[in-house]
Amino acid sequence: MEEEEGEVKLFRTWSSPFALRIVWALKLKGIEYDTVYEDLANKSSSLLEYNPIHKKVPVLVHGGKPIAESLVILEYIDEIWNQNPLLPQDPYQRALARFWAKFGDDKVWESMKKVFMKEGKLKEEGIEEAKENLKHLEEELKAGGKRFFGGEVIGFVDVALGWLANLPSVLEEVIGLSLITQQTFPLLSKWTHEFANAPIINQHWPPKQQLVTKFKAMHQIFMNKQA
Amino acid sequence: MEEEEGEVKLFRTWSSPFALRIVWALKLKGIEYDTVYEDLANKSSSLLEYNPIHKKVPVLVHGGKPIAESLVILEYIDEIWNQNPLLPQDPYQRALARFWAKFGDDKVWESMKKVFMKEGKLKEEGIEEAKENLKHLEEELKAGGKRFFGGEVIGFVDVALGWLANLPSVLEEVIGLSLITQQTFPLLSKWTHEFANAPIINQHWPPKQQLVTKFKAMHQIFMNKQA
């Protein structure tokens, strides 16, 4: 395939969980690529040129052509490089995978953000929403009866939800709240360990203490805004 | 294909723009299906069973298996029935189509909702955001130089953005604001007319006066909440 000849470049930050999805996908498929680390306080002209709409990471540039939005990039990677497929082959199973990945972004991520960024009543609402959303994931794992959302190997949904395998533990250190435990969500808790420690995945986590420091500073800013 | 034998059923409301995407896609592909009209104030037990997470329309049920989330359903339909493809064949063009469809939901729709639901400063913010987002669509049409976002025929992005071809004119009657005109966004304005009047699309619009009545009532509720 001609595209396979093209240079692959990933614009990321050291901490973006959305960029991490792309790192995992490329590594799982064994694709060589160059990394450009962005400082979001001082974005490169290349990033602004490649993602003029959102001006965010990740951006994947393949043979000079840029793609933004991490779930869109994942689909692209899966279509271009067929080895170790992320999405299932069956159209119905593919639809379910896309559904859960979207659920992760629209609902789980948004509720967690509310927990982290808000105070008082809004934070309490966020906690209830997060628990409700995590319950759906727990039930999905139960229904599947497999190690991963994707079955016996890591798939699209696992990569999309991968941030759940480390950010909640960072959240715990910053705001003292444990959302995913063996008691509350046993299968999801088991999944976070299995996923976090799986080959390839386990080599690419950002340093936890560095994340805690960053999120503590961010949390302080949000709290000051509401004070 | 075995799936082609399965019964196709669409759960929708008469007015949902997201459900309309599925109507268009099925009709463009010439798929026979049954329609179940839902009253969202009194949801059927089938809807709650088929979409327990979001409890929303549209839901497509194919051979007894339910799929929720309109963009996910569109991908499924395109994978199951190959005729009149919605997504392009080329992986990079597919990625761009998915990017713009997501942009439509995450940015354009959200900014329009803000215009419609908010008052004062928030509404003004919404108007600025909506204009900025529509400008991106205008530029995309200009770059493509074609009748539709999908080229010379209606594609994935056209179907996803189809609500732009009627809801802004409803908005105009309800809150007296014209966002897409020949003066402000000439190509987008032309596209709304081309799309709205295209064969198949033009047969399935909900009655405009009925939409105006519905949106007027909704708008009143939002305004009362903020009063």
From TrEMBL, chains A, B:
It comes from the Eukaryota. Residues 120-147 form a coiled coil. Its EC number is 2.5.1.18. Keywords: Coiled coil, Transferase. It catalyses: RX + glutathione = an S-substituted glutathione + a halide anion + H(+). PANTHER family: GLUTATHIONE S-TRANSFERASE, GST, SUPERFAMILY, GST DOMAIN CONTAINING, GLUTATHIONE TRANSFERASE. Belongs to the GST superfamily. This is glutathione transferase. It comes from Cucurbita maxima.
